[in-house]
Amino acid sequence: MTADAPPTPGPLRLPELVGARVRLRGWRSTDAHAVREASYDPLIPVITSVPSVDSEEEALAFVERQQDRLRDRVGYPFAVADADDRAVGFIILQLRTAEGARGSIGYWTCPSQRRRGYAAEALQVLTAWARDLPDLDRLELYVEPWNEGSWRAAESAGYEREGLLRAWERVGGEPRDMYMYAQLTAASSARGEHGPS
User: Fold this and answer.
1) pLDDT above 90 for 196
2) What CATH code is assigned to 17-191?
């Protein structure tokens, strides 16, 4: 008698999350304009999977890769859309369950849409949803110390700065320090298993 292998889980299902001014939704081919604009930013292509070449073909390939992330159960990639449903940025909850039930959040905003509060609200909306996911104990963000706008967005969403990680990540081939921001999820808080104080 042989045991049946457990069923392979299907792709992740991306919910639509709505805030006061933003909507987090799946990526569409009509969102390629946001990817193309982001490709001009000097840092976004270096630290994300946004192509460094402004082309429709590369932008559409980026959009398709977001579907791959769902199929491969890597994470939840959202387009950040404004009130007119126009993509103005990107936010992702990457699952790090093999590394201790953690979710790592990354985001970017199109250069023309910065300083309008989209990143902060998108992070608040995503965090409110992600805190209730049963398989995660922590949500984490890594922010370069010079990026005051990003660490203020993290703090506005309830993240606490836990420390400075020296030479944590290579950006453009150079080691960069990162602030680590984190908060515990509802599941972790309910268990109260945080070790000695």
Assistant:
1) no
2) 3.40.630.30
